[in-house]
Amino acid sequence: MELIDQLQFFSALDAVAVSFLLIAWLGIGRIIENPPAKHRSTSYLMADYRRKWMIQMITRQPRIFDAAILDSLRQSTAFFGSACLIAIGGGLAAMSNAERLRGVAQDLTLDAPAIIWEVKILLALVLITNAFLKFIWSNRLFGYCGVIMASVPNEIDAPATLPRARKAGELNIAAARAFNRGLRGVYFALGALGWLLGPIGLIVTTAVTVFILLRREFASASRLVIMQSEE
User: Fold this and answer.
1) Orientation of helix 161-192 relative to helix 12-33, angle to 10°
2) Residues 6+ apart with CB under 8 A from 82
3) Has residue 193 got a pLDDT over 70?
4) Given this model, what pLDDT does residue 109 score?
5) 215 touches 41 (CB < 8 A)
6) What is the pLDDT of residues 109-164, one digit of tens each?
7) Which one of 19, 49, 164, 186 is separated from 91 by 20 to 30 angstroms, measured CA to CA?
8) How far apart are CA 94 and CA 96, in angstroms?
9) Checking phi first, is residue 198 left (phi over 0); if not, alpha (psi -120 to 50) or beta?
10) What are phi and psi of 142, to 5 degrees?
11) 171, 206, 204: which is closest to 190 by C-alpha?
């Protein structure tokens, strides 16, 4: 079957559903990273605490506590990066097994060639691959942050102490931003699997994904705790 003939299995609604997913993926990231001034996201609020963490680190002797936290953050990026690699391998294996894809189509009583299922799985793989790259970059940025932290002088009044602590804080924030982008990629990759049930399924799972992310960033119990007054 020619490629043009195979495209007939995709409808205009499929294009709308995929566009909705991609716009939601990019749009929600922008909203979370650049929230309204009167309603900050959890990620935005945590960025301020990361800056304060690096300032507090200056007077903490020894700095083993800070190193342990940073190591934990790097381990999280490595874990999710490894999980993404496994998911990518599983997706590629599924795409290479045309017979199994046909079996899935028959189980769902959908009359479509294997390439249609391959394209649908490919969409999720693209999102997972993007997430993998974000996790790897986050891991490296946390490494940069660790090096800058180690270069902060022990003398509080040294000229380089505060500037280097602030640099470490900004690198920590950049690493966390990349990590959060990776997590959002994983969320939307899971949502993209709804396309296996058709364009309506994709629209529904994308909407659910957007709802979950917005709730966790702007209406979660953890956000209320972070915003509690410290007076």
Assistant:
1) 160
2) none
3) yes
4) 44
5) no
6) 455 566 777 888 899 999 999 999 999 999 999 999 999 999 999 999 999 999 99
7) 19
8) 5
9) left
10) -65, -35
11) 206
Phi-psi region of 147 (alpha: psi -120 to 50; beta: other; left: phi over 0): alpha
Return all residues near 18 (Cβ < 8 A) that are at least 6 apart.
123, 195, 202
Written as six digits, the tokens of 33 are 């990273």
Q: Is the pLDDT of residue 220 over 90?
A: yes
- Look at the block and give the residue holding tokens 């800058």: 148
Measure CA 130 to chain center.
9
Tokens of 123: 């969409």
Examine residue 62 and say whether the peptide bond preceding it is cis (omega within 30 degrees of 0).
yes
Which position has the token pair 């003398």?
A: 155
| Cα maximum dimension of the chain | 74
DSSP the chain: --HHHHGGGS-HHHHHHHHHHHHHHHHHHHHHHS--TTS--HHHHHHHHHHHHHHHHTT-SS-HHHHHHHHHHHHHHHHHHHHHHHHHHHHHHHHH-HHHHHHHHHHTT----HHHHHHHHHHHHHHHHHHHHHHHHHHHHHHHHHHHHHHS-S-TTSTTHHHHHHHHHHHHHHHHHHHHHHHHHHHHHHHHGGGGG-HHHHHHHHHHHHHHHHHHHHS-HHHHHHHS---
